[in-house]
Specification:
This protein is an all-beta fold. It is 0% helix and 37% strand. A six-stranded antiparallel β-sheet has the order 1-9-13-12-10-11, with no helix packed on it. Strands 2-8-6-4-5 form a five-stranded antiparallel β-sheet, with no helix packed on it. Strands 3-7 form a two-stranded antiparallel ribbon.
Length: 147
């Protein structure tokens, strides 16, 4: 799981779609994290162990951090129950096992808030949330996922 912000490579498309929702109480979302929306409309990091309400899907990639935990160290706008803009689009995301062109157009699932997989249900695990589709690889092998 992420414990700080990160910057991801992004492929621009015709329109960047963003949605903003509040971060669930007791949770933190970091810039660059894969963000899940819960049934109650709050956000958590994908792969959160105990979300306050069931996760229903991936909203996108968080565009800034929001720390909504007791005893958060700051008082500015990035602390407390504020909203986080989550952007859909095409992102370079790290995979648990490197995909190849043979995996083109296959569904991609969230392992946690930073890593994705082509495997929906790991052995002995629970089903992962659908993130999107493997839409291509750069010449250097960097995989891109369309969310």
């Amino acid at each position: 799981m992420l414990s700080a912000d990160r910057v991801l490579k992004y492929k621009m498309g015709p329109v960047a779609v963003e949605f903003a929702q509040p971060v669930a109480a007791g949770c933190s979302v970091f810039r660059g994290s894969i963000t899940a929306v819960c049934q109650d409309g709050t956000l958590v990091q994908a792969g959160a162990a105990a979300p306050p309400s069931p996760m229903v899907g991936i909203l996108g990639i968080a565009q800034h951090q929001q720390i909504n935990t007791a005893g958060a160290p700051g008082t500015d706008a990035f602390y407390g129950g504020g909203t986080v803009r989550c952007r859909k689009g095409t992102w370079a995301l790290p995979f648990d096992v490197a995909p190849t062109w043979a995996d083109f157009d296959k569904p991609v699932y969230a392992v946690d808030d930073e890593t994705v997989s082509l495997t929906q249900t790991p052995e002995g695990g629970t089903a992962r949330l659908l993130v999107g589709t493997l839409c291509g690889l750069d010449a250097d092998g960097t995989p891109y996922v369309e969310i």
